[in-house]
Amino acid sequence: MNRMIREAANLDRRDFFKVCAAAGLALAAGSASAAEAGDFVANAFVTIAPDGKVTVTVKHLEMGQGVATGLPVLVAEELEVDPAAIRVDYAPADAKRYNNVFWGPMQGTGGSTATANSWEQLRKAGAAAREMLMEACARRLKVDRSGLMAVNGEVVHWSSGRRLAYGELVAEAARLTPPADPPLKPVAEFRLIGRPGVRRTDGRAKAEGSVVFGSDIRLPGMVTALVARPAVFGATLKTVDRRSALSIAGVTAVVPISSGVAVVANDFWAAQRGRAALKLDWTLPEQRPSTEDLRRDWTALLATPGLSARSQGEGDSALGKAAKRLSAVYETPYLAHAPMEPLNCVVRLGRDLCEIWTGCQFQTHDQAMAAKAAGLTPALVVIHTLPAGGSFGRRANPASDYIVEAVEVAKAVGAPVRLIWTREDDIRGGYYRPMTLHGFEGGLDAAGQPLAWRHRVCCQSIMEGGPFAGMIKDGIDPVSVEGAANLPYAIPNLQVELHSPRNPVPVLWWRSVGSSHTAFATECFLDEMAHAGGQDPLALRRALLAAHPRHRAVLDLAAAKAGWGEPMAPGRGRGLAVHESFHSFVAQVAEVTVAADGRFTVDRVVCAVDCGIAVTPDVVKAQMEGGIAFGLSAALFGEITIKDGAAEQSNFHDYRCLRISEMPRVEVHIVPSTATPTGVGEPGVPPIAPAVANALFAASGKRARKLPLGEKI
Amino acid sequence: MISLNVNGERRKVDAAPDMPLLWVLRDHLGLNDIRFGCGQSLCGACTVLVDGAPMRACSTPVGEVAGRKITTQQGLDGPVGKALKAAWIELDVAQCGYCQGGQLLSAAALLRQTPRPSDADIDTAMTGNLCRCGTYGRIRAAIHLAARRLGGAS
């Protein structure tokens, strides 16, 4: 069986082990990792070679957020090795061994969980390996185990000065039974975790140009496929005239697949020209919305009560008792993720094996969806996860869209396939951050204190109809109201409601998901309440956050570092926002300059973050910097508009993204903590849009309630 | 056949002269360190140096660069290239890394022209290179660091 698969797949030895691992095949070596003979495979995450080289298997997708650095550090801390010397290997799709501990038997990356769910698992993995190496050393030297210490890749016998490198111990260690519960260091003894100076493990390869992405995989006989998909969401193929496409030199096949028509060619250039030459006719769906229609319909919805996501005190009936009332509607648009690397997937499909090379966030789900498309069992689908050139949630797709497309084409043409989305495909292809409306009614008492808060969210459900639909409770999709239903402010009467209108435009999680719009709406409206009540926005927040010390701490830190309250020149302004997402707390103060004609620049952003223990502080800082840039890009420019059922934008000229000349100075401050680490990939995003909008108000007196802000206030 | 000079090596390709240089380099010559991002000269991921000047390979017909000196990320060398790569590593500029080849090549062209650039010089020279991970602050810092190491006059 093993030989058959190996031959069928024409794999080298390392790949072969990965296949066997994914197929659940028993191996004589007892290990199913990419280990070579003689390696000490301590567990699913740690392998040590006879030359002492340590390999850490990373179960998460590296998409820029730094898991290939932070996760090995967790191992290195307990294993007592230099993280810079660790080789990083990406795990094969294997829900049992490489599941996301927070998600059950599913391997996947998302929700800023990579570090948090690995926190104990990887330290234990490192500690178990260390304990086995020490036990092996004790046996070899015939000394008591208590006289040994693991130091920098060696086990040292203190009293005699004898020392053995890990590589010298691998054979004996491999024969030992792994300890069930190896001891872990107390926080105070960490020498790597939380310390500065750890470099990214992939920094050199990315600077030198040797990193391999999914789009770099080339297999013998591989063809390139582009898919023509309907511009109108929900349209289906009526007719296709293949002749003009097939007449292009290099085009080898035109095959209808479930999402459209694939043009298959010897290279990208031919496939692209072939696709452009296709003559296609689509059957359009009856429902073809436009942004204007959605805005009109959803504005009407906001006038009616939605499902209750939270109600406390007297709810909105307290509004009648308010001395002062204010109301506002906030709006955010659909957004494309637009990672720099457009979606792509390489598939080699044999009779008994489907191999996939791609950067994907939901390996277990993608494995099942690919299996279905291939007509195989999931165990016969191998996913070689490769670093992705960004994702921001796009590669966590319940439809596994780009992967299923590649499998379908491979099945149709009988050759290895590289499927590529162009930028136009990416921008027009849907799976957007939902367009949302937020209707607020606020009431202040005679002293200017918030008395009542009613927030109606109107947001298409991301989870409805997909594999996560079970998380919808009483009609409330939790990701539609995250950041809104858990508003931390002590407002005595509070009501949050949700409308979830249906709409054919496909939506998806986009870096920080619900918080990407709820933070904008809630933090701006709270600012409105502060100004209406004649209160300083910082002072009001502090007062209302007495029961939330972590919110308060980041707020205080950001405000102090930004010089909150210090005078500014005319036309300049500061705004702040604080938001919890993914169990991390982030506050940001933005400084803007508004010119007489309303044009403005965002000059400086001061950010404070509490993510528990910051495992690799520089990566945490990078994620805040990146989150701010990503959020600012959307706050200033990001907008997909829909017309007659199709997206109107198509590439970076009309789906503008932040450029270096628009990047403010960013300072990041980390709150020291001994709490369990929480996420950092997403929490930097939510506060920036409201911080900037609040700063614009401070500078100009004009309140922006609709994103994107554009270039002028 | 079109004759190309890629990173100092002579390469012959059998491609139509209007085929974009990007796809000749990727699909015919098997180079990975040049990236497809937009296909419209909008993002800079496909930046290469042609006789030292940054060009967008996605929109450059291969026929136009026959015989000219093409440099990609891996071929970026010499004092400026080395200093930039070292600064990039030291400051951990890259996140996903996909755009970084184009960033480095644009930065190299800048430093060769302007050895001690201001922030404004950097913004002008680098504004065609998008980074969705938001590494811009570190890009600025790394260019300054490399410039200092190279001892450029201000």
UniProtKB/TrEMBL annotation, chain B:
Residues 1-76 form the 2Fe-2S ferredoxin-type domain. It comes from the Bacteria. It holds the Pfam family Fer2_2. This is Isoquinoline 1-oxidoreductase. Keywords: 2Fe-2S, Iron, Iron-sulfur, Metal-binding. One of its GO terms (molecular function) is oxidoreductase activity. InterPro entries: 2Fe-2S-bd, 2Fe-2S-bd_dom_sf, 2Fe-2S_ferredoxin-like_sf, 2Fe-2S_ferredoxin-type, Beta-grasp_dom_sf, Diverse_Oxidoreductases. PANTHER family: BLR6218 PROTEIN (PTHR44379:SF2), OXIDOREDUCTASE WITH IRON-SULFUR SUBUNIT (PTHR44379).
